[in-house]
Amino acid sequence: MRAVPILFAFLVSLALPAQAQFSPAITVNDAVITPFEIEQRERMLEVFGTPGNLSEVARDQLIEERLKAQELNRAGLRLNEEGLQRAMTDFAARADQDLDQFLAGLRQNGIAEETLRDFVRVNATWRDYIRQRYGSRAEVTEAEVDRALGQSEGGAGIQVLLNEIIIPAPPDRAEAAMQRAEQISALTSQAAFEAEARRVSALPSRESGGRLDWLPISNFPAPLRPIFLGLAPGEVTDPLPIENGIALFQLRDVREVARATPAPAEIDYAAYYIDGGRAPAAQERAARVAGRVDTCDDLYGVARDQPPRVLERNTLPPAEIPQDVATELAKLDPGETSAALTRAGGDTLVLLMLCGRTPSEAGAQDRDAVRNQLRSQRLSGYAEALLAELRASARITRN
Hints:
By secondary structure, the protein is an alpha+beta fold.
């Protein structure tokens, strides 16, 4: 008879780990988040290449999604199956895959389809809800579009005075770099930001606390212009991930000048690649090369007898230039160089040189794209404020 209780105890012991996977790890008001969901989200974030502490990011995302779902339920909104399939297909398309390919890749990494379905369902419905609730408050005027383009009526233009930091973030230090960047992003003191620039920035401007001279806002990539113009003096951008690094900018001042500098139609630039990343020997070589050249054509002589891959020259519309490269080029005049960026996981230093800018024709600016971007930025602000309000009033328990 003793065999029966022993067998029962054995079966219970087998069930305990599975039961633990679906027991509450976090409760958000009356909604439960299980360890299984947290593990699945961590795996998905890893596949997506998300930086930071994935365990904490997963928990924070799931808490926010429970809050969003509860608000959506109160509003009576839910994405139907047809809409969900369309949203998942669009999500997969961002990775240049069809939905079946994308789901197969997730399964290979131990991620259930339901994990993606839950993620997309809540966030796609939330975007629609925010547009419906705040759309009328997020309208953008023509004058605001002019300012974002660096133009205004009468031909005036906008210039910005910035401080800059780039924190090196190779894969083995990406998490620590992001944590430091988030701390710096919260600063509002110019002196504190400049002290951090001297301490952590990989840029030559660190010697002056990251200070830049006045620059036309139109020099910068279009996505950065509304971000800079949305800052008050002293405020710092959110961390801006770039390849092998994280960029931060602090606004010192904004001014209007008599004549606008139109955004270029095309930018001609060269990139000379130097082995060694940010090692002193590589930086010294970059300085020597920069001292020998006055124009981009001079780089062909420097690269003679070296593999073709060491020198690259492009003439591209600003939207087709990688954002970190475009941001560095924004700070240069023709013939000037920058050695702020790296490639190949930080093992290759990039010596950039601006060859020239081709002015755009009057009226060639994509006003609709800028208008949509400004509107999206405003909607994001309303969404963040609502989510903060929901979180402040919620009962959140971590078991």
